[in-house]
Give the backbone structure.
Amino acid sequence: MDHMQLLIVRSNDEEGEISGHTLMASCPPESHIINRPQVPWNPQDADNASNLSSLYDLSLRLNLDGEITPVMAWGLVLGHPRFVELVQEDFESLKEELKGKVRCYGFGAVLEEFEVRDALNSIFTTKQEVASLQQTYDVLERFE
């Protein structure tokens, strides 16, 4: 049994302490822990859309004082008014910008909310600057 599954199985016992790892998308669901605790969990078997929705709902109950969980960060990205403008390259930039800022203090991964907002703002500012430069180039090209 892997480390995370062991923590979840232990936390399901009456004497076990709840682990923050239960809020991870790759965590085995409660039904798996109760019915088959010794069977290794394969996260690829999960219904990721409903799991992410459940994780997001659970994460809203946490008081993290300016920090957010990765699923909450994803909620910020999805909820951004300009989300539809993002392309694959933007997601790669966002990932590179944030991956070094994620911390785990033993109860699950967190990062500062302002860092997610700053990373998003940086991407959209760059998009705006590129669009502005393209417009200037187009105008100059007409005068040639």
Summary: The mean pLDDT is 76. The longest strand covers residues 109-112. The radius of gyration is 20 Å.
